Amino acid sequence: MVTAGVPTIPDRQAIALIFAPAGRDAQIAGSLVAEAGVTARPVRDLPALLAGLSEDISFAVITEETLRNADLKDLAGWITRQPSWSDLPFIVLTQRGGGPERNPAAARLSEVLGNVSFLERPFHATSFISLARSALRGRRRQYQARLQIAALDDGERRLQTALQAGHLGTWELDNATRVLTTSATCKAIFGRSVDADFSYRDLFAAIHRNERRRVWKALGRAIGTGSDFAVECRTVWPDGSEHWSEIRAQAYRERNGRQVRMIGVAADVTERKLAEASQRQINEMLEERVARRTAELEAAHADTMAEIAQRQRAEEQLRQAQKMEAIGQLTGGVAHDFNNLLMAVLGNLELLQKHVDQDARALRLIDGAVQGARRGASLTQRLLAFARRQDLRVAPVDMGRLVTGMEDLLRRSVGGGVTVETELAEGLPPALADANQVELALLNLVVNARDAITGGGTIRIGLRQVDVVRGGDIAEGRYVVLTVSDNGQGMDEATLERAIDPFFSTKELGKGTGLGLSMIHGLAIQLEGMLKLQSAVGQGTTAELWIPAAVGAADRPEAADRVETAAPDGMADAPVRRILMVDDDVLIAMSSVDMLEDLGHEVVEANSGEQALKILESGEKFDLIITDYSMPRMTGAELAREARRLRPDIPILLATGYAELPAGMDLGIPRLSKPYSQQQLATEIARAIAAEPVGGPSGA
Fold first, then answer.
1. Contact status, residue 584 vs residue 631, Cβ threshold 8 Å
2. pLDDT, tens digit, for every residue of 192-251?
3. Cα(229)–Cα(223) distance, rounded to whole angstroms?
């Protein structure tokens, strides 16, 4: 019997094996066993006894003479192989008692059987029943131990899974001996390999020399007072590179209250600290710009209610920019992690659909879950757009053709009560943009304009070219400006100031996410353009999306209505490939491997860049490498560079939810945007294998 995967105590049917083939011994023992509340199961010979032994047997009753001259090697082997919680009780019916003085053969049986009780014949029925019940109680205590061991094992597995998902390393320090015990992940956080020694002295040697005294004092205070230990500090890896680690621990005490060790976790927070440093630089730059502008205003207009007003506006713009940048940093990180979770959910649901094709109710439930996950993925993409971390495919785009191609869709979207007019300038240069994202932005602006109009009205869509000569809100250069204007109710000044804030909406609850303008603002900034909004109550709203124009005669506009190459319908008919799948996230790796194997491919899984390189160095042959980008110690881009050094001709796919890679990491390899479906995965595999690799070992 099992409950939620954990064995339970078989209370309902306790079973005793009875090996007493001579005379009426089996019948008598069976009757007495039944009085003890146990079901008797007689066996004819020793092989039958061995076949009947299992974890569900409560105890065994054996007559001594049946084992006297038998080969007990197989029985002894079964007893030795019992799980750690199990020690099956044996009751041996003997003619001369169980003591070695009266019955020397009993010593041999005690050595073989282990947990054995001897009952000398003739015996009273109550003695046998009492012995049987005692054996049953002991066996049930063993079953209880099995439950506790299983629960401990399950808890340990859950803990390890949580630690791996959170990229947390564990460590333990003995207060008396200063012996440090660390997990493999903890060693990796300090730049050490799994098999490397990492002592208490090594730990402090790995901490930046300017941080050691602070960390040492904090640890000493925690050990001395029993308080929690928590520090963030710079660390230096053996290769000389600097990183940031967060180290936390609590005191572990014995039952008498004596503190004996510190137990804690460590995490690599380098990426967060770099983001904070970048944020500080942005703040300093903005503050310097405001200070410079304020100084200029003070020098030119020392005595004017205008200089003060301009300074106040500049300060407000600074606060707004700082707020939006901070929200963007937070939003981008959350959206990226949420993308990973959706990747695992969508991948598993997609595979699950194939196994319940005859169960209409299950298909309906799975379809509902898929739709919810896809809505979450759409929301995540909007968050990434706001945080300027969405994956863009920037190319020269013919904006006139894009708008013209969408006219029918836009008119259907606004309905019959609203008129859509276009005014598109001739001879416009192509814009450097992602056509799909600009289409989505235009549709959002038109729908917003429609919702602002009551009782019928007009939406005007325009395109024009603007040359910026002097820098201001935007860099100098040529821009293509997409304008959407309406004659709706408009916005007051307070609403206009918050219009691009994420999740801010003036629509009714459930009518919008409040991410439309935030997404367009993020897209504009990511394209190195801008979004300008002008509005007044009763006078409508004008939104302008400024996009840099493509420069140079070699730029050729991309068709706005391009169609992504789809994988053939018969995905299962595609050639079988041998693929190396690399991802440090256990859930995503499992989901991706399942999708690849469902497509018919042979997959080898690696959970770090270092592990993947060892597999490649071993000489194993692969047709393709699929690697996550964001991994500790070695990113997917760094792995790609090393893999190209070993195998210059191997195709590589880089899976990521981020738009931009750090400088020097772009090897020109194709990217697979998360979350991806099995169809998209098959498509990108076909493309990657069909295309020639770009760049060599140096990434040139």
1. yes
2. 988 888 898 988 889 999 988 999 898 888 888 888 888 999 999 999 999 999 998 888
3. 8
C-alpha 336/C-alpha 389 separation (Å) is 9
- For domain 166-268, give its CATH number from 3.30.310.80, 3.90.550.10, 3.10.350.10, 3.30.450.20: 3.30.450.20
Predicted TM-score (pTM) of this structure:
0.44
Structure tokens at 420: 């859509």
- 641: buried, middle or exposed (CB in 10 Å: 19+, 13-18, 0-12)? buried
Task: Tell me which residue of 56, 85, 68 sits closest to 19, measured CA to CA.
Answer: 68
Q: Which residues pair with 92 in a beta bridge?
A: 62, 118
Are the CB atoms for 172 and 163 separated by under 8 Å?
A: no
What are the tens digits of pLDDT across the range 434-473?
Answer: 887 888 888 888 888 888 888 778 899 999 999 988 766 7
- Angle 321-435-635 from CA coordinates, rounded to 5°: 65
Of the CATH numbers 3.30.565.10, 3.40.50.2300, 3.30.43.10, 3.30.70.270, which one belongs to the domain with range 395-548? 3.30.565.10
**E strands in 133-199:** 168-174, 180-182
Name the nearest CA neighbour of 462 among 535, 533, 404. 404
Question: In a 10 Å sphere around its CB, with 0-12 CB exposed, 13-18 middle and 19+ buried, how is residue 527 labelled?
Answer: buried
- Asked if 399 and 463 touch (Cβ cutoff 8 Å), the reply is yes
